[in-house]
Amino acid sequence: MSLAHIYLRGDQPRARWKRHDTAQILKRFFFCERSLIVSASAWIPHIQDLDVKLAIPYFCWQNAETANDLRERVFELRFPSRLMEHEGADRPLAALLNQIRKAPTVGAFLAGWGSVALTALRDAYHEFLEHADPLADAPTYRFLELSLREKEQQITKLAAWAAQELAADQINRSRGETWLNEFGQALARLGGIGTDEAPPEVEVSPIPGSQPVLIPDRPARDRRYWSCRFYWPDIIDSDFPYGEGLLLQLRSAVSHLNEVWAVEHGGIILSEFADILPWEWIRDAARWTYDESRHCQMGRNRLSAWGFDPSEVPLGSYIYESANGVEPIYRLGMLYFFETKNIGRKPERTAVFKEIGDAASEHDMDFDWADETIHATYGNRWLRALHELSAEKYPPADKVREKCELLVTKMIASASPAEKSALVARASSMIQRANELARA
Description:
Ferritin; 2 domains; two-stranded parallel ribbon; 1% strand; elongated
C-alpha cells in the first residue's frame, strides 16, 4: 500500500486563523480602540462630575496601552512590514465608533461608549480568545486577557454614571436615549465588531440627533466645589503669600486639585492632534492626561483626609480660559510650560514636607516630580514635531511659550476687585479651618 497520499489529520480548532488572518483581526481591534480613545478624550472638558472627569483619562490610558500592544503585535505578525496607517476595510467600523464624539448629551456619550461600543469590543475580545491559539499567539493572550478585565470594570462604572446622567437630565433624556438606540442599531448593521469578516463597505451616515462636541469656552465644573476662575489669592494678589508650613501644605493640595485644567487640556489636544500626528502622539497624550488626573486626585484626597468638604474648596479655570479662541497648539503649550515651570522646586517642597512630617504631601510631590520629567519630554517632542510638520502654521516652542505667558498674564489682569475679595475670603476661611483641624 502506497503512503504517498496518506496524511495525519491536522484540522485542529486552534488552526482556524493563520498569521495574516490574526494580524487583520488585531488591526481591526486597534482602530476600534483608537477611535474610542480619541472621541472619549474630547468629552473631558464637558463633564461636570469630578469622579467621571478623572476616570475618563484612566480608561483612555488603559485602552491606549491595549491599542499599542495590538499595533505592535500586528507588526510582529506581518514582519518585516510596519505599515498600518489607515483603517482599510475597517473604515466603516472606525467611522461609526467615532460617532460617540457627537452624542447629544453626556448621558448618551457615557452609555454609547460603555454599554454599546466597549461592550461590543469586549465581546469581540472574548470571541477572539475562544477561537485563537493560546500557543502560537500567546503574546496576544497576555494583553487581551488584561484588557478584558479592564473593560469589564470600565463598562460597569460607565453604565452606572450614564444611568445617573440620563435620569438627572429629564429634559434631554428622550433625545439621548433615541440617539443611543440609533447608535446601537447602526453598529448591529455593520455586524458588530466581528472577527472573521470585515464590516460591509458602506458610507456611515451621522446618527440622527448627533451634534458636534465643540471645545467649550468654560469647562464644566463639579457643583460640589466652589467654582471660580482663580483658585488661590497669590495668583492675582502679590501681597498674599504663597506660604510655608501649614500654608504650603494647603496651597499645594489646592494646586494639585486644580490641575483639573491640565486634564481638560490633555483631552482636547489628544483629540485635536490625533489626525495630524502619528499614533505615538495619542499614546503619549493619553498617558499625559492620565497623569494629570492622578495629580488632581492627589490633591483631592489630601484635602478630604484633612477634613475639608468640597464646598469649602475653590476649583478654578483661569489657565483653561486663557487659551480660549487660540489654536490648539497653545493649549499644548499651556500644558507643557505651566505644568513644568516649577519642576525644579518640587524636590525642595518634597524635602519640606518630609521635615514637617507630612508623609502624604511628600509622597505625592515626589511622584509628581517624576511624572513631570516625563511630561517635559512629551512637550519637547511634540511641539518640535508640529513645528517641523508646518513651520508656518505651528510656531517654534519659544514663540508658543511667549504667547502662552501673554495669554495668562492678560487673564490675570482681568481679575475684578470682587473676584479678589471673594477669593481672599475663601482662602482665609480655609486657612482658619486648617488651623482648627491641625489643633484638633
